[in-house]
Amino acid sequence: MIELLQQLINGLSLGAIYALVAIGYTMVYGVLRFINFAHGDVFMVGAVTGLYVANVYLKDGEPSTLAFFLVLICAMLVCGVLGFVIELLAYRPLRGRPRLTVLITAIGVSLFLEYSFQHKAIFGPNARAFPPILPWVDSIAIVGDLLIFWIDVLVVGVTVVLTIALSAMIKFTKVGMAIRAVSYNSDTAALMGINANRAISLTFVVGSMLAAVAGVLWACKYPNVHPLMGLMPGIKAFVAAVLGGIGSIHGAVLGGLLLGMVETLVGGLEGGSQYKDAVAFVVLIIMLLLRPSGLLGQTLHEKV
Amino acid sequence: MTILSIRNLCVSYGAIQAIRDVSLDVRKGEIVTLIGANGAGKTTLLRTISGLLKPARGEISFLDRQIAGIAPHRIVMMGLSHSPEGRQVFANLTVRENLLLGAYQQTDRQQIAARMERVFELFPVLDKRRHQPSGTLSGGEQQMLAIGRALMAKPSLLLLDEPSLGLAPIIVRKIFQIIRQINEEGVTILLVEQNAHMALQIADRGYVLQTGQIILQDSASNLLNSPQVKAAYLGSEASEESEG
Questions:
Q1: Mean pLDDT across the stretch B87-106?
Q2: Of B54 and B240, which is predicted with more confidence?
Q3: What share of chain A is helix, strand, coil (3-state, %, to 5)?
Q4: What is the tens place of the pLDDT at every residue in B33-42?
Q5: Nearest chain A Cα to B92, which residue?
Q6: Which of A66, A75, A99, B87 has CB 3.0 to 4.6 Å from A46, enough for a Cys bridge?
């Protein structure tokens, strides 16, 4: 029982990272109805930026919580700009084209990021260790018989705060309403006087910033940064978004947490660790068979 | 004074020419109706005026400014609102949120509140449902919301695309009454309808669109009596029935 609980706690923090990435998939799907397969690589760029900034900082600074948040914010800024540029250069010119065209372009952007970052001038093909910017990254709290890593508390805490902030923005602010309107129907949103392109750009910026946070948190947890590191978490976050119901932000969070926990549980089984990467795909297949609209997804009924 | 003037407009979808050499004028204070069969190009014409489609050729001037090819949100800002075909209310947003979106460009909160109250006066049923998701409204209520939402932008010209679509005759009459009332309060209206009979009854002038071209234009009363219009669009039963 204790072991199960322990696994669930571990899974929660993994799932929180999936959730942050999944929000980006689901928001972009909401406004443009396509899966931005380059999103996992934005996550990687977040981790890489974090690594660079942390290294520069640690040249004459000490690890501290404040430094960690500085690194986090730098990664968010870089990825926010990256998301904006990707949308502007790769996807906007294809507005109104068949979705397959955009989807294949997304794969192209993904490959472009993965392989350009393998160039020596940018990062190089080899993995590098993420520097210990958080002084307490390995600290543990013992609660009864449970071991809780403080980094996991941080991961879950940051995810909760950002999810609440994002939900509030979507629900209560004017730009949030614009994003919801564009998600519903971008032509009709334009007739309301909403600049649909601006709402779409904003969606990419916000989603990419969350991916950057996920990338830095991931790198703190698993301090191994390389250009292909976004591949697996990216695909799993995509599964999480589908699991929760693509287009729904709360669904993405729920899907991420569930997937993280299931994956950790399977990984904890006798001989299960080699199958843990397969879990996401089994979940995807089952979900698509049983409930393709996802846990919180809604099929829109239109009155004519 | 001419508020909207269209000259030699052509619009294509790929190789298909949907609008061919259309010229049309709407003067301040008028209700002008554009009638025609399904697929004649009525919706295409409205979508081009409001900037959702780019014309292949021709001019559209609104309040003496060229608007052909300008982004739709800028055209709304100039005072041209479009209530689209099929109502297109934001189903998962409440009535109130839908109306607020209609006033997206407005910044004066007091004015927004005042306009919303005016919309509730015109359509009291919306007031009762203001916190209800608009997807739960009936078709007629959704149509009222779509018109009210378009009014929130404080338009000088209102484009209405098939407000009678799929609605019971009694509701259609009610909505047309309100359209007339909106017009009397100073909003110029360009009304697209398949229900030619109803449209011509409230309109000052009308244009008949057929396969992308204007084949007739006259005062509404003359069109109502024109044998050509009668035969094609006001057939014995067709007057009260809207397809949809």
A1: 95
A2: B54
A3: 70, 5, 25
A4: 999 998 899 9
A5: A184
A6: A75
Amino acid B86 reads: G
Q: Please name the amino acid found at residue B65.
A: R
Which residue in A192, A298, A303 is closest to B102 by CB distance? A192
Which pTM does this prediction carry? 0.90
Helix (H) or strand (E) holding B21: strand B16-27
CA distance A13 to A1: 19
Most B CBs within 10 Å: which of A95, A188, A191, as the mutation test of the B interface? A191
Output the pLDDT for position B230: 87
Percent of chain B with pLDDT over 70: 96
Using left for φ > 0, alpha for ψ between -120 and 50, and beta otherwise, residue A207 falls in alpha
* Helix pair angle (B139-151, B109-122), 10° resolution: 140
| CA–CA separation, B180 and A54 (whole Å) | 67
ipTM above 0.85, yes or no: yes
CB within 8 Å of A245: residues ≥ 6 apart: A251, A255, A293, A294, A295, A296, A297, A298
CA distance A294 to A247: 10
Q: Residue B239 pLDDT > 50, yes or no?
A: no
Q: Does an H or E element contain A31, and which?
A: helix A2-32
Which chain B residues touch A192 with a CB distance below 8 Å?
Answer: 73, 76, 101-102, 104, 149, 153
Going by their DSSP bridges, the two strands B213-219 and B57-62 should be labelled as unpaired
For residue B179, the surrounding DSSP H or E stretch is: helix B169-184
Structure tokens at A83: 């998301």
Please tell me the number of Cα atoms within 13 Å of A269 on its side-chain side: 11
Instruction: Give the Cβ contact number of residue B79 at 10 Å.
Output: 18
